[in-house]
Design goal:
alpha+beta, 2 helices, about 100 residues, single chain, four-stranded antiparallel sheet
Length: about 100
């Protein structure tokens, strides 16, 4: 039995644009889907194609295909529960100075 069907997941493909910049001012990669798919908690986006190398000082815009996996009810609930625990890890960060006042 297919686990995707059992858990209510849906898979489909869509074209996408990938923008990569590797410069002094910025190091980023953005994926823009050419579909109206809603990417919410638990969703996965898998971009297909060969590995991309962006040398320093370059900005690339590429076209690829992406597989979008929409989560089922179980995945959405599990993601929301897990995110609560992961978010609380951020609360352990201290912004106070070690200097004596």
């Amino acid at each position: 039995m297919n686990a995707d069907w059992l858990l209510g997941r849906r898979r489909f493909e869509a074209p996408c644009a990938i923008e990569i910049e590797h410069s002094f001012d910025s190091l980023h990669a953005h994926v823009t889907l050419d579909s109206d798919a809603i990417i919410g908690p638990g969703a996965e986006v898998i971009v297909h194609g060969e590995a991309i190398e962006a040398p320093f000082g370059s900005r690339l815009v590429l076209r690829r295909r992406a597989t979008i996996v929409q989560p089922g009810w179980f995945d959405r609930i599990a993601t929301r529960i897990k995110s609560q625990f992961e978010l609380t890890e951020l609360f352990d960060v201290s912004f106070s100075s070690w200097r004596a006042l």
